[in-house]
Amino acid sequence: MHTWKNQSDQTLFSTSKRYLAVDQHDLAINMYKKREEYEQMLRLVSKHRHELLADTYKHIAEQYELKGIACNNNIFQAVSNRLNCPVCKSINQPIHLHDEANSNPPTTKGNLKRAEHYYVEAKTWQSGVSMYRQLEKWDDAKRVAKTHGGKAAFEKVVLAQAHTVFKVFQGVNGCISNSL
Question: Are residues 61 and 28 in the same domain?
């Protein structure tokens, strides 16, 4: 399999060189985009379509964000499946994604960190903060805000977190009051 990967990489590189030789930069870029080989894609965009570089970073960040969210949803589904799975219950097996073909389950954290990286590269760090806020990953949201937006941005995220916690507390308090 390792040899095939090298042959595949060599074929892509060779195809890319041919596209570039006939000034078909967009075809070469799109080829890497379809294969999700973002570093190669960025290399070509920065060299041949520099005016699209910020948009390209943002697009890649959005792709990783979507993967992170999808992975997060799969993990929640796995927890639900674990509670209802007779196999897991009978052998006290840890949570799994019920996908034998996927021996390496996707990681939310890795995709979100990549998304954050590309949002920062696109100079849209605020999108990274929003991504973490929506997923209620407050420590990450505060870290990105503080690093790239300074004290004022950090304080905004802290206030948003406090507001969210207050809403949750208010809802719990209302449920308790209604049950009494």
Answer: no
Q: Which of 37, 25, 110 is nearest to 70 (CA)?
A: 110
| 4 and 68 together in one domain | no
pTM over 0.70, yes/no: no
Q: What angle do CA 40, 121, 25 make, to 5 degrees?
A: 35
Averaged confidence pLDDT in the chain = 77
If one counts the domains in the chain, the total is: 2
Stretch 107-123: mean pLDDT, rounded?
A: 86
Query: Could you tell me the residue range of the domain that residue 154 belongs to?
Result: 51-179
**How many helices (H) and strands (E) would you count in the chain?**
8, 0
Q: Which of 137, 175, 131, 145 is nearest to 167 (CA)?
A: 175
Stretch 65-92: mean pLDDT: 56
One domain, residues 71 and 36: no
Tokens describing residue 1: 């399999």
pLDDT at 6: 56
Give yes or no for a contact between 121 and 97, defined as CB atoms under 8 angstroms apart.
Answer: no
Domain boundary among the residues 15, 31, 48 is at: 48
